[in-house]
């Protein structure tokens, strides 16, 4: 499509959207909603409340339906304990909170998982 044809198409879409916007502006229901919102926001500002605070006052369970911040989800989980393994062959220590430690995996591959677990202190 040529740039001129695309320009004309976008110009037509814009004209159509402007016509729809003008039609909505003259609609009494839209005017009433806009007036209500304007008065509500002024009232909230006058008393120092946010829309979220008003919603939580009117519907306390609405807060539970909102997505909780990631930090509160992580804080509810018990932190993993540090596991310490000591290799009796060379005295090397490994501290890990999970089983995805490279040295620990190498030891398990070489000596077997049960043997390495017996090295746990």
Automatic annotation (TrEMBL):
InterPro entries: MvaT_DBD. Residues 83-119 form the MvaT DNA-binding domain. Residues 74-84 have a biased composition (Basic and acidic residues). Residues 62-98 are annotated as: Disordered. It comes from the Bacteria. This is Transcriptional regulator.
